[in-house]
Structure formats: structure tokens, C-alpha cells
Batch of 4 targets.
Target 1
Amino acid sequence: METTLQVTIDCADPRRLVAFWAEALGYVPEPPPGGHATWREHWVATGVPEEEFADGAGETPESVVDPAGVGPRVWFQQVPEAKAGKNRVHLDLKVGGGRGVPLEVRVERVRAKVERLVEAGAGVLRVVDEPGAGHYGVVLQDPEGNEFCVV
């Protein structure tokens, strides 16, 4: 049996995070399958009872996908409880190019991506720039406080 990977992020407002993470990852909102107008319509057609839906669930895309079909699907699952504490798992957006790229170039790439993400609603938590370590990264939060790194 084949195993596929989906990253699921609990959140209060899937629409907000779909817009943010589509921008952050270069992904697109996932359209509903099978010619359905909405995900809710699709889910009902597959037998999911209406009483299982939160208000507005499935009316707009709640997931993003890699348009090239390479990266994992990311689903933003609406939950009633607020985020509590630090993430135990986080995403790393690797934009610098790795250690084979000069540090100055990696820093420029990371700063440019961080600037775009801040404009899209991210908040900067801290910059990781240890002299002599040959590493540069920035720890951010998405619009709902989920931590991630840009390196």
C-alpha cells in the first residue's frame, strides 16, 4: 500500500491561512475534486453528514497544493481551541540554496523571502545569525502564531 504525506495545521481561520501559506510556499488553493463547486459539496457527495461540518467548512478551499505536484498537500483544519504553546513540529522554508551557496547570497535570499512573508501577515520572532557558524535563518510566526523558519 502506498503512503502519501499531508501536513495538517490546526487553525481558527482556514481561509486566512490558505492565503498566507499559498504565498509562502508558492502553492495554490486546492480546488474541489470531481467537478464539485465546493469541498463541502464534494464531502456531502461522498457521505459526510452535514452535522459534522463547522460553520462555513468547505465553502472555500481549506488546503493548498504544490502546482508541480511534488510537495505535500497542506490542510488547514479548523478547530475550536486556540493554539497553546510552542509547536512541536514546524516547517522550514529552504530558500537560501544550502551551504554550497556563499553565506552573503543566502542571507539576501532569506531576507527577501522574510520581507514578502511579513507583508503577507507573518511576524518575526528571532533572527538566527551566529558569527562563524556559516548559518543564517529567521524564525517567524504565521498569522495564527504557528512557528516556522526561513533558511
Target 2
Amino acid sequence: MIRLLFTILVGVLLGGVVHLVSVLALPRIASQDAYSRLTPMTELNAVTQLPLTDPNTSPMPFMDPAFAVAVCRYDLSDGPLKLTVPVSQAYTSVSFYTRNEIAYYAINDRSAGKRVIELDLMTEAQHSDLPEDEEITSADRLIIDSPTATGLIVLKALAAEPGLMPQAQSSLAAAKCGIQNEPPAKAEKPRGKR
């Protein structure tokens, strides 16, 4: 009887380990991940709007039809990326994913507190190469460190009503995502009274 229980316990444990390993390895070995599916329809280091969600032709699963969606497929090997996203009237969010679909940062219009979400995306090595500037504080500039050189930035704008979808799409159409060629601008010193 003990031998039978031991065999069942070993079988359950082995099955659990195999299941866990396959679930964790699947994103790395899948050939049709989000990055691969979006490669033919998007430009590198540029914002591309995705078509409106249709259950039969959706480029990514579980897309919400109340959101206009745009994607920036990035490669940081040529330098840091500058992202600028105008905020829509209802709600705007920006999510960052590695090449293997691991989410590592997200921001929305409420946490940004501005009419435009502006940030710099770079690798940790590129961030450490930046010159130290005492005049530029973290409040002046948001820098995101990407764990990988390639990945996806997903931009979403909510259309609270179906008639507001063109407005949500136009706010994402004004978004910019591109390699930063010039060094970061210095913050101007406020002029005091003399």
C-alpha cells in the first residue's frame, strides 16, 4: 500500500514539475508570439496604429474594442529611444514589454500628471553612460531602463463611447517613438530677481 501511495505521489510531483516547466518555457519557444506577429505590420522604432479590434482579425489576443491601440516595436542597439504620447480625453496608458512578452513598466495619464507622456527608454548600459547633470532632476525627465535591447511598447487610448473612437485614434496618431540622436537638453535655470 505504501509503495502505491509513493508511486502516486511521485507521479503527481513529476506531472507538476513538467507542467510548470512547460508553462514557463512556452513564451520563449513559441514561434508566433506578439513580437513576431507584429513584425510584418509595424516599423522598427516608430509608432504604428493597429486596426480596430475584430474577433476574427485581431493581431493580438484579448484586445478590448473600447481602446484604440498603437505599438512601437523598438531596438535600442542604435541608441536610446524618445517616446512622446499625447494624452486622450478619457484615459491613456503606455506599457513596456521585453521581446519575450514580460511586462516591466507601465504608466498612464493620471500617474504622469501631464498632457503629454514623455520619457526616454534605454538599456542600463546606456543609462550609466549618461553624463551626470545636476540641473536635470528626475522630475524633469523620466528614464526607463529596459532589461533587453528589443521589445514592444503598447499605447492605448480609451474611447468611452463608440463615437469617440476617432478622437482616441487621433491622439495615438500624434505619438512619436524614435531613436534619440542628440544628447538630452539641459533644463533652463530659473532667472532670479537682481
Target 3
Amino acid sequence: MTAQMHVPSLLSRAGAVSALTLAAVGGTLLAPGAAPEAQAATTAHANKALSIAASKKGAPYRYGAAGPSRFDCSGLTLYAYKKAGKSLPRTAQQQYNKTRHVSAGSRQKGDLVFFHSGGRVYHVGIYAGSGKIWHSPKTGSWVKLDKIWSSKVYYGRVR
């Protein structure tokens, strides 16, 4: 009786290990047909957030502002994703901590681009494709499309 009780336990552990391995190599744990819908929803939110950020072109930078007419960097990403139906925390570092981190080769339009130095995230924008981001850079500037100017960036996908 004891041996029979351990067999399901071993199978459960083996199943969990297989599931973790599958997830680690980019597989899906969802039922067949569910992954495309989940991905489509994520992509739809990202595309909407990107469009909203672009619509704010020319809005002046203001430290601590999160819209609708003035923004700092994380205020712009917070605002765009909120309007797209997703919630983000307030600061660039907190947003980085909440996103699913992706490689540069896996980045997609609408992903967040985090600029970092010494392990600290100090700026964020929304990836627009072709190596460019929508962002609100600094005092005296405004929301605009710029080329990514540094190799010290992380990418994050809003879930």
C-alpha cells in the first residue's frame, strides 16, 4: 500500500519536472489551441499600448506625470498600457520587475525597453520596431520616437 502511494507522487514530480523543462525551453503548458489565443491577447494589448504611446507624440515631459497631457518615461508606459487594459506599477524599475523578460532577438513591438546602468533600471520606453522606441526622455523634451541609443537595455513583455 505504501509503494502504491509513492508511485503517483513520483509521477507527479516527474510530470512537474517535465512541465518546468518544457516551460524553460519555450514550450507551452496550456491546452492545445489555448496558446495562440493567449499570445494574440498579449499582442493585441501591446499593439494598442504602442498606438496610444505614439498618439501622445509631442506631449511635454514632466517628472512624475502619468498623463493624459504630460508624462515622464514610466508615466507614459503606465498610461499607454492602462488604456490598453493592462496594469503596470509606477516606476521603470518596478515595471521591469513585473514584466516577463525577453531577449533582444525575441523582442516584439509593444514590449518595454529598459535602460540600465550598474544593475539599476533608470529609463523605459515602448518598442516600436526597427530599433526604435516611443518614450518621454527628460525635462525640456517631449514624447517622441527615437532610435535605441545604448546596448545596455533589457526587454520586458507585459503579461
Target 4
Amino acid sequence: MSSGAAGGLNADSSTDRSAQETAMTETTASPAPTVPARGRGLRVALRGVQVLLVLFFAVASALPKLIAHSSAADTFAEMGWGDAGMYAIGVLELTGAVALLVPVLQSAAATALSALMVGAFVVQLTYFDGANAATPLILMVPLLIVARARRGHNEELRRLLRARLRRG
């Protein structure tokens, strides 16, 4: 009797085990759970890149210009752009950095900062014999990645701008 009961348990256990293995195989083989995790990881990585860009443009690039630090002031004086040029570039960089944090403006901000980096590249080549010309090009890579990845917000921005223009 005990052997029959044991045999019955084993049969039920193997049936349950087989069903569990099938269920586990179906859930682990299914691509659905990995896609959201991967997408979430990419979104987190992209947000991290954006935060690094914000910190660079706001703190390392715009701040020295806006407080007229000697390193920035001397550079703009050497180019003949003076304080007005220095402050204008600093304001553009700070504005772009802040806009990188606003969802509807992220793609446009990354594109605008990329254009600013094209100008910085040209300035480095023409005024400074290409001494730091690689820096703007290196910064353009993550900026263009952000611009492309966040391009879905562009339609929302267009819609908001159209509505604003109609009102007033």
C-alpha cells in the first residue's frame, strides 16, 4: 500500500514537474519579458547620458563664461569676440543644458547644442589651429544620439507651438 501510495505520489510529482518545466520553458523562452527590461535599461542609460551632458554644458562650459572666468574671458578676447560673445555663448549653452531636462524640448535642445558644437569645431580650427577641435566632435556623438532617440517629442513640440501661435 505504501508502495502504491508512493507510486501515486511519484506519478503526480512527475506530472506536476513536467507541467512546471513546460511553464518555465514557455516563460523563459518568450521574448516579451526581455524586451521591456532592455528598453528600460536603454532609457536609463540615455537619461544618464543626458544628465552628463547637462552637467558638462551647465557647469564645465557655460558657468565659466557666465561668471567671466579668466580662462573663458581670455579665450574670447583672443578671438576678438569680447564679453558679449562670451556671455551669448554661455547663455546658449546653459539654455540648451536646461532644455535637455525638459521632455518636450530634449530632441530640439540636443540638435541645437550639436549645431553649437559645429560652430565650436570651426572656431577651434580657425582661431586655435585645431588644438581642441576633437572635443566638440566628441560631444556631438551623444548629443545626436539623444536627438535621435528623443525625436518622438518633436511632434508634440510642433503641436504646442502651433496652438500657441493660433492663440496669439
